[in-house]
From TrEMBL:
The keyword Lipoprotein does not apply. One of its GO terms (biological process) is sulfide oxidation, using sulfide:quinone oxidoreductase. The lineage of its organism: Bacteria, Pseudomonadati, Pseudomonadota, Alphaproteobacteria, Rhodobacterales. Residues 150-267 form the FAD/NAD(P)-binding domain. Residues 2-110 form the Beta-lactamase hydrolase-like protein phosphatase-like domain. It comes from Vannielia litorea. GO terms for molecular function: FAD binding; hydrolase activity; quinone binding; sulfide:quinone oxidoreductase activity. Transmembrane segments: none annotated. This is Sulfide:quinone oxidoreductase.
């Protein structure tokens, strides 16, 4: 038998045989639903024969036949009623299991989020994107066709989305562009490290979304539920349908706080903080100021994450504050890194190591945070060193700065746009989707092997805007992305190691070494981060002014 669990109490399978019913009972199932009409296939037992076998095994049996391709709203409702009435766990079957999975998906539409339904069925081997619109509509077939249609639809109004909209408008003023995002506030996330270090005020990093949407661009204040790329459509929560000629996907990524047991219960108290959240970054600085002696732990999860240097930036700024206050010798600092190196581009490691040594920080590689007990102030790590058996260690702390695991948003991971890991699948040079020629993606959500930073999005926005404009004009892409990303590593108050690099770790400095040598800590890089980059972000990048952006041109072979 091929039983595929969808939830803890429900599974589906292809056709079952009477002789297999005792095995189904032994597996713990208490009910069977048959969704296959009798005589659909020559090798198929009748439902009455299966019902008799179920009765003999002590199982309940229900026959809800569905003709292939004709899953009605009424049958889906009846399926939901059957699930409620029959004792669980329940096994439903048809010829392949697809009809049963479809019925379950539609029956759950009013009680489970669409991404959860798509993820559960996808994990069992069934793609329900074909009925995503019906699921979004509460399990019923929509009666409407399209709510609106635009030349370009941009999913996500973060740094990447607004910058792309502005750059597109600058190139093609007459384009009808819509940006889809439910958020009221737009955040300058690169500033949160500085908030946690007592340099910026949190309010400086937030502006209302409405004040930043480019003039002439439509803002659809809603969440995306699903994509229908074959129909050039985006399905919103509530089953509104937005059509597009071209689509740009850049909703950012998801901070998976829940993947660390106990973390959500203690964030913002018990000495547990993170600069990865607007409301918690001020708490980081409060903890740093209040810690006079004891142990401070800083964590970094497996890649990919936003700004690979951010976890250690928090360490450096905190340590420097304790150093300036004369308390560094009374505080033990531990950096718990799930990876095996301090920084992925070796050219910057010597400068960073000099600060690790200066602050007497202990480097603990291959340590991945698994759980936190805030009341007890303990953190448990899985330690997985190469060629060694994994072990768990529990460490005490007075303060812990957590960088959460990070994944693609749920509605992206279960969509036709995603690769096997859940990220939007693009060509790493043109940022065009590998399967759908009228779709592009940029920012943290796509799968190109670059650093996920705002500086990367700044360059990518210009590249996507230009290549999309080229496509409108009937031309091939004219610019390519070299993987550029920047990570200003704040090693002390007043100095930064300005890491700028591209694919394969190639150094891509924006300034001559006499001005800023990125492999060394410099005051100039600090002034760039503190004084120059925030206005560049708000007044240039988000307004389509592509300062300090020089995309590589496509060269003829």
């Amino acid at each position: 038998m091929d039983i595929r669990k969808i939830t803890g109490t429900f599974a589906v399978s292809p056709q079952i045989l009477p002789a297999e019913v005792p095995e189904i009972a032994a597996a713990g199932y208490r009910s069977i639903i048959c969704n296959r009409p009798d005589a659909e296939g020559a090798d198929q037992p009748g439902h009455e024969e299966l019902a008799a076998a179920a009765k003999k095994a002590g199982l309940k049996f229900r026959h809800l036949p569905v003709t292939p391709g004709m899953v009605s709203d009424e049958t889906a409702a009846q399926f939901g009623e059957a699930l409620a009435e029959l004792p669980a766990p329940t096994l439903a079957f048809c010829r392949t299991g697809t009809r049963s999975a479809t019925l379950w998906s539609l029956s759950q539409a009013k009680t489970r989020p669409l991404p959860e339904i798509l993820a559960a069925t996808k994990a069992a081997g069934y793609d329900m994107n074909g009925v995503a619109r019906r699921i979004a509509n509460g399990g019923k077939t929509p009666t409407d066709v399209t709510d609106a249609s635009y030349d370009v639809v941009i999913v996500g109004a973060g740094a990447a989305g607004i910058a792309t909209a502005s750059s597109l408008k600058a190139r093609k003023p007459d384009l009808e562009i819509a940006v889809i995002d439910p958020a009221d506030i737009h955040y300058y996330q690169p500033g949160w490290t500085m908030v946690g270090g007592g340099i910026f005020d949190a309010s400086e990093t937030a502006k209302t979304m409405g004040s930043l949407i480019p003039r002439g661009v439509h803002w659809i204040k809603s969440a995306v539920a699903a994509f229908e790329p074959k129909d050039n459509a985006v399905v919103l929560d509530g089953c509104r349908v937005i059509k597009y000629t071209r689509l740009v996907v850049c909703p950012g990524l998801k901070l998976a706080w829940d993947k660390i047991k106990g973390l959500e219960d203690t964030l913002g108290r018990n000495g547990v903080t993170s600069n990865y959240r607007y409301d918690l970054a001020p708490y980081t600085w409060k903890l740093v100021q209040g810690l006079k002696k004891g142990r401070a732990i800083f964590t970094q999860p497996p890649m990919p994450i936003k700004c690979a240097g951010a976890p250690q930036k928090a360490l450096y700024l905190s340590a420097n504050a304790w150093e300036r206050a004369g308390m560094l010798s009374d505080i033990r600092i531990d950096f718990m890194n799930a990876g095996g190196v301090l920084f992925g581009v070796k050219d910057y490691v010597p400068a960073l190591m000099s600060y690790v040594e200066r602050y007497k920080a202990n480097l603990n590689f291959f340590h991945n945070l698994k759980s936190i007990d805030g009341e007890a102030r303990t953190a448990t790590f899985s330690v997985t060193r190469p060629d060694e058996e994994p072990v768990e260690v529990t460490e005490e702390f007075d303060m812990i700065h957590v960088c959460p695991p990070q994944v693609a948003p749920d509605f992206i991971r279960v969509s036709p746009l995603a690769d096997a890991a859940g990220w939007v699948d693009v060509d790493q040079s043109t940022l065009r989707h590998k399967d759908y020629e009228n779709i592009w993606s940029l920012g943290d959500v796509m799968n190109a092997p670059n650093a996920k930073t705002a500086a990367a999005a700044r360059v990518q926005a210009a590249i996507v805007a230009q290549n999309l404009a080229d496509d409108i004009d009937g031309r091939s892409p004219s610019v390519v992305y070299n993987g550029y990303g920047s990570c200003p590593l704040t090693v002390e108050r007043g100095k930064i190691v300005l890491a700028e690099f591209g694919y394969g770790g190639a150094l891509l400095p924006s300034f001559p070494t006499w001005m800023i040598d990125g492999t060394k800590p410099t005051r100039a890089a600090w002034l760039l981060k503190e004084k120059v980059l925030p206005p560049v972000y708000w007044k240039a990048m988000l307004r389509g002014r592509e300062w300090m952006v020089h995309p590589e041109k496509v060269t003829a072979s």
